[in-house]
Amino acid sequence: MTQPTTGHSKSYFAWAGGLTMFAGVVLIIAGFLDFFRGIMGIANDDVFVATPGYVFRFDLTAWGWLHLIFGIVAVAAGFALFKGALWSRILGIALAGVLLVVNFLSLPYYPLWSLVAIALYIAIIWALCVGRSPEEKI
């Protein structure tokens, strides 16, 4: 009996594995940066710009705690991606989506970094959705 093939070459799977590693590294880096952003918000919230009349107004200290906690979870999820488990990819996609929204909501407080973080999380989502390991079924 013959085994079914997926039609993908070995170079495709190497490329897909590279994308997963890329997503893991970027998720770790972005998680550390969000962690430090959270510390900034907790320790000294006057670093952030106060935008009057913003629809989504938050206490910046609470916002700092939110970034700190999500940053820690993002670093842990990034390291879990190195194991190659499907659950870690699903967690990475979900976490990157949540952090994308969190950074969108914090645009008025720290606009330049929020835009950079949004771009990083979009790249993570793309890399985790496109790349597949040879063990995964389509």
Automatic annotation (TrEMBL):
The chain crosses the membrane at residues 12-33, 62-82, 89-106, 112-131. The keyword Membrane applies. Residues 20-132 form the DUF7144 domain. Keywords: Membrane, Transmembrane, Transmembrane helix. The keyword Kinase does not apply. InterPro entries: DUF7144. This is DUF7144 domain-containing protein.
